[in-house]
Amino acid sequence: MIDVSDSRPVPQDLLVVLRHPPHGTHWLREGLDVALVAAAFGQRVGLLFQGDGIYALLKGQQAGPLGQKGTHPQLAMLEMYDIDTLWVSARGLNERGLSADDLMLPVVPLEASAMVELLQRHPHTLIF
Amino acid sequence: MIDVSDSRPVPQDLLVVLRHPPHGTHWLREGLDVALVAAAFGQRVGLLFQGDGIYALLKGQQAGPLGQKGTHPQLAMLEMYDIDTLWVSARGLNERGLSADDLMLPVVPLEASAMVELLQRHPHTLIF
Amino acid sequence: MMLHLLNRSPRSTATYQDVSEAFGSDDHLLLIEDACYAAQPSAGAALEPFGGRVSVLQEDLVARGLAKRVDPSVEVVDMNGFLALTETHERCVSWF
Amino acid sequence: MMLHLLNRSPRSTATYQDVSEAFGSDDHLLLIEDACYAAQPSAGAALEPFGGRVSVLQEDLVARGLAKRVDPSVEVVDMNGFLALTETHERCVSWF
Amino acid sequence: MLNYALLLHAAPYSHQAALSALRFADTVVANGHRMKTIFFYHDGVHNASALMAPPQDEVHLADGWKRLHQEHGTELLVCVAAGLRRGLLDVSEASRHGVMSHSLEAPFELTGVGQLVDAMLTSDRMITFAP
Amino acid sequence: MLNYALLLHAAPYSHQAALSALRFADTVVANGHRMKTIFFYHDGVHNASALMAPPQDEVHLADGWKRLHQEHGTELLVCVAAGLRRGLLDVSEASRHGVMSHSLEAPFELTGVGQLVDAMLTSDRMITFAP
């Protein structure tokens, strides 16, 4: 699934913003695929969970009723790919009545001003 | 484009609810296709424009920049198919700052209670 | 008596508003797919217009890790319960 | 300096909110496709967070019958203007 | 016993809706009702592709629909206007439009929107699944 | 002169996004820039179908992408994982997966997501068009 080119370019910083919840659509899965491939490709990848994308991190997710894979197995692979800082929108977290204890991985909540700064210091950004 | 079966069933009432604006997606076009076909098929068809679907009626629409057809030519065909009453959500109209003068066809604005009644008296409803 | 089927997250506020305009006093709302997120107590206002006549699909709740996060005013039904709702309601409309 | 591209109607309130969280003081917002509806004076609040740094695509306005309904605070650009915005902004992100 | 018709607007593998529809259809027949017609419209026509090759550990949606036809006689109707635009066509449409090969085979059938109206009028229940 | 890459997530004939992307690509080349790569992902892979047969009075999207390749050398890269699931495959993938025929031909190429990352790193601008 993860293809790695022989010629690795100089590492750059890529921010992948995840805005869609798991299961209902494939956006989250495809955004995580890009993040994992980019990391395997030698890039420094950061993830920002925003809006309903925060639900990707909710504990206790399972496979879908027809056996369709969730995205939580992809999240479990992040550390192996050196993707270790997960940012979340503090406002998005509050609006959903969630705290860090509800999430399956440690996260860094960001206020809006810090989110703007985060986007500005990453030379590449993809939104899913 | 309009296919008519030989065996026409007893006419029934079909309400088609249009909730999506023109051009951005094909929902509106496909809902109108169903309405026109059902009318050609001998059914009594009513249209309810709700939410952004109200923009389907805005005057002055044109073909898209790559020549893609709009939905206003379909609307011009409604009368030919005896689809002559167009209902719109009064709230949706107000929220968009629109009045009947802004629309290309005469409409009947409905309050929420009248919309509920409209759905209830149509034995068939399709939402697009 | 109509069954309304809704599959969008409660952040799709326009869809919830459109459903509420068309929701009769005998109607019922079933939340499936990403609409499961509306069944949480924290989603609150999204379901207010539906006067407690709301169910949510268990299988979709479980997949999303929401099984223990359902507001008590929302009834949980499984796929057989979903089918039963379409049996008892002569008409079913889907909002998307 | 980032160009934000938005193609959803202003009734997709969650999307507009997410853009506003990520919108820097040097950034610019371009409304295309169904986001043209946000350029009307009646859409008001949707564009408030963007401090007047908003453009809308002329070709998409015209197709929707909105050419004469643009709020004076929103700049109208054609396809060449869209391209020029991507030339002057090193990065472009799309919200959907 | 009720006759059910489903209207599916959603492409496979992008939204849950196609899986939701298949799961609902399975529940219909498991409870002794008749799963009479599935109408594929909009991006839903892609569900009928004979060419899809999903990973072995994912649901093969086209096979799921075919199983319903084989075991329960469910009609699988694909809107011809929506299908042609999107590259879903049978042998005769491929030849008529000079397209190199076809992507749709029985038990899927290309039909007009009139068949959707007919399905609505002649079924007891019509349930829509959309993206 | 800048190098542009586009990422297209949207299926043809359901959303305006595919038309928006084609229109943008035309503007890029008309203004003397290089339209280097178009990467088709998610439902965007359906744009590469060799089988689409839209009505004569509608834009033929696959032909539009091919024209960009022929006249301007634009790479047309289709995500292989997204394509296989959805029935977009070339001769060799069709044979490998035992599928009756193929639906994708040159100048469209099946590639991995790595090529998307590469396009992002090696272009001056990457613009996304989504449904």
From TrEMBL, chains A, B:
SUPFAM superfamilies: DsrEFH-like (SSF75169). InterPro entries: DsrEFH-like, Sulphur_relay_DsrE/F-like, Sulphur_relay_TusC/DsrF. It comes from the Bacteria. Belongs to the DsrF/TusC family. PANTHER family: PROTEIN TUSC. This is Sulfurtransferase complex subunit TusC.
From TrEMBL, chains C, D:
Gene3D superfamilies: DsrEFH-like (3.40.1260.10). This is Sulfurtransferase complex subunit TusB. It comes from the Bacteria. Pfam families: DsrH. InterPro entries: DsrEFH-like, Sulphur_relay_TusB/DsrH.
Automatic annotation (TrEMBL), chains E, F:
It comes from the Bacteria. Keywords: Cytoplasm, Transferase. It comes from Salinicola acroporae. Pfam families: DsrE (PF02635). The keyword Zinc-finger does not apply. Belongs to the DsrE/TusD family. It is found in: Cytoplasm. This is Sulfurtransferase complex subunit TusD.
